[in-house]
């Protein structure tokens, strides 16, 4: 007997969805907007949108529904797909104990991807929070100084046509100007991107652009607009044909833009929302006075852990993260590096247990249902290493402690960027600096210092012999002996070199 045809996802079809698919218990007519979110990608729909969905399920705070927005061509494609299904999304949680699907209904509109439409929506008085997921690279950070990059072509375009901005920050400034002129209070700007001090970085971008785009507004923004920082976490793979087929065949839903994610979510927010906020503490969000300790815990133990397993796995030719975690060299390297060098640099945040947090990360990395790829962990190393690994090295050097394992991790990254794995297979380097990385990695085979001379990446660390010497020794050993023997020696407690 053949299965019934899948149900096309839309509001009118909710009652016809297969048994076992969780659907909203609230009505769309009960919701009104309070948040405008720019960057309606998979992570937003797996994370922030699901927190709001769960809050609406509790029967309150229904004046905080989400309106989508965007500034990129890909946002138009997402809007088109979601429009056809009344802004609903199927979210599948990839729990090894059993997959589950629920329909998320917390987004009630998505404004046309046009500057004026976005600015006008942000200027509406009922919008009290503008939130963002525009990727770590979307904040116009100057690689050399860490400050605002006023020379970026998109920023220059905004300065040339401030009524039709290309960036989300240009739109925010224009909308804030309209609210100020109308004597409306400013909205809170809340970054949901995975980068250190995301509130500070967002504030830096908005004020940096306002200084040239609308002189005189920057002081008002600095004094009157809130930019709370937050730490977000939920592994959310990209959606492709595999995920669309899974939702159709496993759950009987025809969804053009489903989301799959791990069952774990965490959100820690600085409690600074002058115009009010939804009561997200009712659904597990942690509101704290200082996000920094939680952020440091995640950036070093989780993101640093991803970096630790990425390049050794890539060099060994392993495709999936869960398979990597079953490999004794990968699991052993992660465990020793975390316990010997990473976790000791992390102060314990209030209410947390670092060892339990680490064990949970191992469980999450090992989840076979997620299907996370090693290639994803390896991409963009020139941006990720300075965020997730190099600060830990700097802290240990400051305290006079060994960085042998971390130097080996950097050497594995360098060896990976030579673009050939241990089996002689070509590796595609996915990084904005890919060509320079490949050139320097090959030069570093005989001159390890060539790798450290990338000042945009390493800065003053390159001149610290306590790091440069173990890095050079590890890289030389990787080329001479191969990846497996070097990592085996490190796991045993011997010198990798």
TrEMBL record:
User: Which residues does the UniProt record annotate as the domain Mannitol dehydrogenase C-terminal?
Assistant: 290-479
Domain of life according to the entry: Bacteria
Mitochondrion among keywords: no
In this chain the Mannitol dehydrogenase N-terminal domain maps to 34-281
EC supergroup of this enzyme: oxidoreductase
Cited Pfam families: Mannitol_dh, Mannitol_dh_C
Enzyme Commission identifier(s): 1.1.1.-
Presence of keyword Transport: no
Q: Which of UniProt's keywords are assigned here?
A: Oxidoreductase
User: A Gene Ontology MF term for this entry?
Assistant: oxidoreductase activity
Q: What is this protein called?
A: Mannitol dehydrogenase family protein
Q: Which organism is it from?
A: Aquibium pacificus
């Amino acid at each position: 007997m053949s299965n019934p045809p899948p149900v096309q996802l839309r509001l009118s079809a909710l009652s016809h969805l297969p048994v076992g698919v969780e659907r909203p218990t609230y009505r769309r007519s009960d919701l009104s907007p309070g948040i405008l979110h720019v960057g309606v990608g998979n992570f937003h729909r797996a994370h922030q949108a699901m927190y709001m969905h769960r809050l609406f399920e509790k029967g309150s705070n229904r004046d905080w529904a989400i309106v989508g927005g965007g500034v990129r061509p890909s946002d138009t494609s997402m809007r088109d797909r979601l429009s056809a299904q009344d802004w609903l999304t199927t979210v599948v949680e990839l729990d090894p104990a059993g997959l589950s699907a629920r329909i998320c209904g917390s987004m009630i509109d998505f404004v046309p991807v046009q500057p004026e439409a976005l600015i006008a929506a942000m200027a509406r008085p009922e919008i009290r929070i503008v939130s963002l997921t525009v990727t770590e690279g979307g904040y116009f950070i100057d690689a050399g100084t860490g400050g605002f990059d006023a020379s970026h072509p998109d920023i220059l375009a905004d300065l040339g046509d401030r009524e039709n901005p290309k960036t989300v920050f240009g739109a925010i400034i224009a909308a804030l100007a309209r609210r100020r002129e109308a004597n409306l209070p400013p909205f809170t700007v809340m970054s949901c991107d995975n980068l250190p001090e995301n509130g500070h970085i967002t504030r830096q971008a908005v004020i940096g652009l306002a200084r040239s785009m609308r002189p005189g507004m920057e002081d008002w923004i600095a004094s009157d607009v809130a930019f709370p920082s937050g730490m977000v976490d939920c592994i959310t793979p990209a959606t492709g044909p595999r995920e669309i087929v899974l939702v159709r065949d496993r759950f009987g839903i025809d969804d053009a833009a489903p989301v799959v994610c791990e069952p774990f979510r965490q959100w820690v927010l600085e409690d600074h929302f002058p115009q009010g906020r939804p009561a997200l503490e009712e659904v597990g969000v942690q509101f704290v006075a200082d996000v920094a300790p939680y952020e440091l815990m995640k950036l070093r133990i989780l993101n640093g852990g991803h970096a630790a397993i990425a390049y050794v796995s890539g060099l060994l030719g392993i495709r999936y993260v869960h398979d990597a975690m079953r490999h004794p060299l990968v699991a052993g390297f992660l465990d020793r590096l975390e316990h010997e060098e990473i976790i000791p640099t992390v102060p314990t945040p209030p209410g947390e247990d670092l060892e339990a947090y680490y064990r949970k990360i191992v469980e999450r990395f090992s989840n076979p249902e997620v299907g996370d790829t090693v290639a994803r962990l390896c991409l963009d190393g020139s941006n990720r290493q300075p965020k997730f690994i190099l600060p830990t090295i700097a802290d240990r050097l400051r305290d006079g402690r060994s960085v042998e394992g971390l130097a080996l991790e950097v050497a594995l990254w360098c060896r990976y960027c030579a673009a050939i794995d241990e089996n002689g297979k070509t590796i595609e380097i996915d990084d904005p600096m890919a060509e320079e990385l490949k050139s320097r990695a090959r030069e570093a085979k005989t001159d390890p210092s060539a790798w450290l001379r990338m000042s945009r990446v390493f800065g003053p660390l390159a001149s610290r012999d306590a790091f440069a010497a173990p890095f050079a020794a590890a890289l030389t050993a990787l080329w001479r002996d191969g990846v497996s023997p070097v990592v085996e020696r490190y796991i045993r407690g011997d010198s990798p070199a």
